[in-house]
Amino acid sequence: MSHSLEAYTDIVGLPVIHQMQRLGERLRGLRVVHVNSTSEGGGVAEILAWMVPLMKELGIDTSWKVIHGTPAFFGVTKSIHNGLQGKIVPLTKKDWGVYFDVNTANVSELRDPLESADVVVIHDPQPAPLLELCPKRKGKWIWRAHIDISRPDRAVWKSLRPYVEKYDASIFSMREFAQPLPHPQFIIAPSIDPLSDKNIALDPSELEKERARFGLDPNRPLLVQISRFDRFKDPVGVIQAYRLIRKVLPVQLVLAGGGASDDPEGKEILDEVMGAAGDDPDIHVLQLPPDSHRTINALQRLADIIIQKSTREGFGLTVTEGLWKGKPVIGGDVGGIKLQIANHYTGYLVNTPEGAAHRIRFLLHHREQMQAMGKTAKEFVRENFLMTRHLREYLTLFTWLLRGEGKHTIMV
Amino acid sequence: MSDFEIKDCSLLIRMSGLPSAVNLRELRDRISACSPDVLYHHFCETPLSPSFDYPDYRNDFAVWSKWRLGDEILAERLGMIDPYLFPSMEELRASTLEIIDDRLGEVTMIPWARPGHEFYFMQAITVAFDTGERIRHPDELDAAIDRMTNGSIYFHVLEARRREPVGQDDFSSWLSGQEGKWEHHLAAIRAIDFTFHSLSEIRRELVEGLSNARAKRSKHSARRAGLAGKERTRHDRAHDT
């Protein structure tokens, strides 16, 4: 469900809403088209579901187009996706042909709106060839990479790069994810929606209901890690940390993630986790359905400390969510977690189960410090990682591309 | 009296095109070659970037030296650089390089960052705009600042120090051009060490300082009005007799 900009006033303050409206005023009437490959499911569709209505509300003529593909096309784009993230994938000339042909098939329907748009934002690799299929384009074209392409399979990147380098600009989620390209590359970090089910404030009765449902003891500290069952999230390392703490403190642990039935690797990791948990009644391994947003929200709010002990991570939005709940987060010293956790201020960065156990024990013995960290954490997210900042940065980029390209500062 | 025009700005970070640095020598070499916009970003634009405001160090080079190179001595030295005290980016660059060169001369091994903890050289673009809001009288200043975004605070307090008159924030420049005496207000602003505050803290300090200055000024005016009244009465009495 999308909300109006005004609905965020109590959270970010009126000046921030006004700032957005003023930036929007200068872009009123601008025709912006976003293109991706799915209208629901996945992070990109989630972002566009709130961003497109908010841009419209600001007076920007914004539309969202979805390219349609065949199963073969999505098989190829899945391989491209994996290849860009570093997996070696055997993509043939024929596969790249399928990729280009599906984009060609889509362009007849999309050419008019895309060629007449002032700004076109192409999300991820699937629709990237559309640019060269629109030779009469008049606006600025931006390629928005939502994935980590810092160490791609070189063959895949070599084949995709010719499509991407012709764009006027590209956007990456983190500086570490970018690849050298012959146009300006911008960094726009992901964000969370504070009014979504995953982040909205919950009634205490709902929290208690969830606590009872999972058999959690209200009188003992609770540690929570929300993550899919993936080796890079190190769930077994979290159990090791828990066991080290349990020697001195009666903590409980929740490891909650999506079901792993259709993911062979996920199933294997889940089995390892279950094995490591054994019959300890204070370790709760929860396989939650994909729409369990409020449950995840409740578990994060019930936690004393949130853990994200990844050994490899993208941006780590579960860390952002945890910080937003006013909790210190103990996280692996990797990826975007490094941007979000400042040692001693919003949590602790750790490298081992021992490190995690040490910091958790320290915090559980220093409740005041824990509360102060939680407060800092929430304000840090409010200032930096809510969707209002995300939207503002898009508006800034549009303004700069249309009116000030090449300059450091422009006055509009 | 001219009105104060409230401006706002929004910043967006971009890659500079320079390779990242993995050790102190590479950091030194990149700093010596980077564009002034890169230097300006890592020294001055950090408060407006989506990143944590470390209260101990106000520039990215000092933060990286401490947390990623593990060189606290270097971090302390770099952390004390106040970029606004330098008349130009080139002088800021020279001073930064001197500190690093001194450190390179002291250490027996070049400090390195672990893989994944490299220093990325970034720069930013800024879009500034007029909010349409105006401050008509200095007594309205504290309430108006309280309603400002971080972007406005950055523009009028930090970014302003690069514009003419160099080294001065916009509020002080405006107050200095107003009729009447605004020493209390100006002193309140001067008392704030802008380099060591986040933007929210600067806003809070300004609001507090300026509202105290306003209270002092009205107390002072009331006292002067009282004295003038007494003087008038004395004068009238003398005249009557």
Q: Which key terms come to mind for this protein?
A:
heterodimer; A: 412 residues; alpha/beta; six-stranded parallel β-sheet; 15 helices; 13 strands; B: 241 residues; mainly alpha; two-stranded antiparallel ribbon; 10 helices; 2 strands; elongated
What does this 3D model show about the protein?
The complex is a heterodimer of chains A (412) and B (241). Chain A has helices spanning 9-12, 14-25, 43-57, 71-84, 93-116, 154-164, 204-213, 235-246, 264-277, 293-302, 317-324, 337-340, 353-365, 367-384, 387-403; strands spanning 31-36, 61-66, 119-123, 140-144, 169-172, 185-187, 222-226, 252-258, 283-288, 305-308, 329-332, 347-350, 409-411. With 412 residues, chain A is an alpha/beta fold. In chain A, helix 2 (14-25) packs parallel to helix 15, helix 8 runs parallel beside helix 9 (264-277) and helix 8 (235-246) crosses helix 13. The longest helix of chain A is centred in the N-terminal third of the chain and has 24 residues, at 93-116. Chain A is globular. The relative contact order of chain A is 0.11. By secondary structure, chain B is mainly alpha-helical. The two termini of chain B are 44 Å apart. Helices cover 52% and strands 11% of the residues of chain B. In chain B, helix 1 (24-33) packs antiparallel against helix 5 (89-106). Chain B is elongated, with a radius of gyration of 23 Å. Chain B has helices at residues 24-33, 36-45, 60-67, 72-79, 89-106, 141-146, 150-158, 170-176, 183-190, 199-240; strands at residues 4-15, 122-135. Chain A binds chain B through residues 14-16, 18-19, 22-23, 26, 175-176, 178, 180, 184-189, 334, 338-340, 342-343, 345-346, 379-380, 383-385, 389, 392-393, 395-397, 399-400, 404, 407-412, and chain B through 8-15, 17, 37, 40, 50-52, 54, 67, 116-117, 120, 122-129, 131-132, 147-152, 200. Strand 6 of chain A pairs antiparallel with strand 1 (4-15) of chain B, so a sheet runs across the interface.
